[in-house]
Amino acid sequence: MDHNRILKKQLKRLDKQENRVLNRKENTYLKSKTDPVMEKIQGKIPEKLKTTLEAAFFKGFKLVFEKGHKYIEKTYKKDKLQFDYDLNNHRIDRNIDNKKLSNKHIRRLDKQAKQSKLMNTGISVLEGGILGALGIGLPDIPLFISVMMKNIYEIALGYGYDYNEPKEKYYILLLIGGALSKGEEQKDFNRQIDRLGKNIDKNIYTEIDLEEQMRVTSSILSEAMLTTKFIQGIPIVGAVGGVANFNIIKKVGRYAGIKYKKRYLLGKAKDRD
């Protein structure tokens, strides 16, 4: 099969997955039942806690970006992931050149990213459930961010991207914002992600403000976690926080997988236009 046909088919499938994320419809019945309860809880959350939570996420991101990646990298075999990518990428290039590319070559590239997402969502449930049940809320935020970043880092490595570059860190922050926002805000994030990814891969100069984006993403993440983290600060009931952490890690991982794979395949298609 023509390699362009395979790449286009893969990209079309990714577009469908992306559109499902961007045009996600809420269950109106469930929403009508849960919204009143959530509003009551949110009404009891002090404004000071909102500010504190946002600041905690911001500090967590700074810590991970400045020092944390060295510790996170101890939790997986970075060299092996890079070797596996190099090997799979070489196979894909060779089979494109020989006009023998098939879907199985791309599936091999996806394998590690999928395993990473399953592993890290499990860790997050354990982390959130244990700490939440003990009545701990804010102190587990750096750990939660580390698990989330571990997930993204492994996906990035699986598709050949260096997450330690400042622009790639900015790209990751946009990914988190895009995964957790809704409506037009989410679509705007998606456009920013595509534009930045294209500019990075083409070495086009792009001005970024990493610290400002950390603040923006911290605000979105704190909004997504606000109610559950408030509950998580209450003993026993706090175990629910683990489920919330699972959902957020899963959502971010799924979206990151779509965007990194799409970026990789677009690069392959354009390299041979």
What does this protein look like?
The structure is a single chain. The chain has one domain (3-7, 48-271). It has ten helices and no strands. By secondary structure, it is mainly alpha-helical. Residues 128-136 and 235-240 have low confidence and may be disordered. Helices cover 81% and strands 0% of the residues.
List keywords for this structure.
mainly alpha; 10 helices
Quickly give the structural class. Answer: mainly alpha
Task: Give the low-pLDDT segments.
Answer: 128-136, 235-240
Largest sheet: none
Strand content: under 5%
Summarize the structure.
It is built from 10 helices and no strands.
Topology:
Elements: H1 3-22, H2 28-44, H3 47-72, H4 78-97, H5 103-133, H6 141-158, H7 166-180, H8 183-201, H9 210-232, H10 240-271
Helix pairs in contact: 1-10, 3-6, 3-9, 4-5, 5-6, 5-10, 6-10, 7-8, 7-9, 7-10, 9-10
